[in-house]
């Protein structure tokens, strides 16, 4: 199944980037409708041809096989910058509903990675350079996913309108294949780009979230929309509500660009001083200029480094939060 999908994606990529015309039969199945074509491009708010073609092919394949029935599909271009002119959040995540002629481009985070003594695979705030499917790498992995169930968890209390309120965050799980097949092992999914930075704990024995002593954590909400994440896709709180409502109980496909093959091909082209467009390759120009060349760290290379680093960490005694004033 994966081989057939890769063949379809490869053919579509060649058509999208080279301008070659597919056969009449293929054109009937894959032709981008006129209303959607106006959203295709490399500018802010647009989707690159190769990203759209692969996202459409993945959705079409999963729909034919009955894996998804949702008429909408998702896509992400992790080569794009976090912010654009004026400091506005860059839009690199896409929600496309062709039956409704709806196209929406929003911001999303990418994996921030780590900087270890044996390997530096960290990413800056503006552009992603490093990618991996290693568990614990905190990096994004491009490829094919299908949305799965959601899980909502309590994170603590925060202040809102002068009152302490509980904060819950919903996490949308992804199931992957190929390089992304360990998405569950890595706890990769989508969620609002906000976390609760714990500061102290206060006594609230009536709370269903209280510990054995009757205390609950309290902190400050931190919004990191369009920034970096632990490898998950992250959206603004308002966009998250829309996406979660759209896929709750009705899974759909998500295609994230670039895959490992794209990353390696672009890196080789940069090393050789070749033109990406002439080589039929794509990467956001601004980010490529900023990072020099991307790198994919395969699991078999990076996992042993991460595991050894983890084993070297000293054991830390459990720490209790201070009591709130």
N-C termini distance: 59 Å
Please give the radius of gyration in angstroms: 21 Å
Structural class: alpha/beta
Shape descriptor: globular
The averaged pLDDT comes out at 89
Which regions are unreliable across 5 or more consecutive residues at pLDDT < 50? 1-29
Helices, by number, come to 8
Strand tally, please?
14
Spatial arrangement of strands, main beta sheet: 3-2-1-13-6-7-8-12
SS strand fraction:
25-35%
Helical proportion, percent range: 25-40%
Order of helices and strands: HHHHEEEEEEEEEEEEHEHHEH
How would you describe the overall organization of this protein?
With 325 residues, the protein is α/β, with parallel strands linked by helices. Helices cover 27% and strands 27% of the residues. It is built from eight helices and 14 strands. β6 (143-160) and β7 (163-176) form a beta hairpin.
Distinctive features:
single chain, 325 residues, alpha/beta, eight-stranded mixed beta sheet, 8 helices, globular, disordered N terminus
Quick structural overview:
The chain has 325 residues and is of the alpha/beta class. It has eight helices and 14 strands.
Describe the protein's topology.
Blueprint: H1 2-18, H2 24-30, H3 34-37, H4 49-64, E1 72-77, E2 93-97, E3 102-106, E4 110-111, E5 130-132, E6 143-160, E7 163-176, E8 189-192, E9 194-203, E10 215-223, E11 228-229, E12 233-235, H5 237-247, E13 253-257, H6 260-272, H7 285-291, E14 295-297, H8 299-312
Parallel strand pairs: 1-13, 4-11, 5-14, 8-12
Antiparallel strand pairs: 1-2, 2-3, 6-7, 6-13, 7-8, 9-10
Helix pairs in contact: 1-4
